[in-house]
Description:
Blueprint: E1 6-12, H1 16-31, H2 36-56, E2 64-71, E3 75-82, H3 103-110, E4 113-119, E5 125-132, H4 137-147, E6 159-163
Antiparallel strand pairs: 1-2, 2-3, 3-5, 4-5, 4-6
Helix pairs in contact: 1-2, 2-3
Amino acid sequence: MEVGTSSVWMLPYTASSVGIARRRLIGDLTRADVCEATACDAGLVLSELVSNALRHATPLPGSQVKVSWMLGDGFIEVAVSDGGGPTAPMVNKPAANALGGRGLGIVDRLALRWGVYTRQDGSETTVWAALPLSGDTKRTAESLAENGPRGHNGTGPGLVIASSRDA
Length: 167
C-alpha cells in the first residue's frame, strides 16, 4: 500500500477514537519510513489532542472529530478539529496529585510549535502541533519559526489564530 504525505480522517466523537487515531497515524508514518521514535511521539501528541477534544469540546456535525497529519520539510504536523468549547486550549500546571490536566503540557514538551485556530463563525476549532522528523531540531525549529507549519503559521481564510511559542 502506498502512503501519501498527508491524511484526513473523520472519527466518531467517542473515547475509542483516541486509540484508533494513534494506531492509524503510527502505521501511516511507519509505512512512510518515519523513524519509530518520531512516529511514537506524534502518536502520543495526537492522542492528547483527541482526548482533549473529547473532554473539553463539542463534536463536529455528525458527532465526529476531524484528525489530520501532514509531512513537511523536516517536521510532521498533526491536528484535531472539533466543534469548539467554552474555554481556549492552554497548558495547565496541575497539582502533583491531580488526575488530569497534563495533556497540553505533554504536547508543549514534544512539539516544536503548537497552536489553536478557530473559524470566525465559531463552528470549528483546530489544535495543531508540529514535531521534528529528525534529530536536527534547531534547523526545523528555525524553519517553523520563519514559515510556520504549512507555510502559513496555522492561519487560513476565516480563521483566528492563537499560537504558543510565537516567533
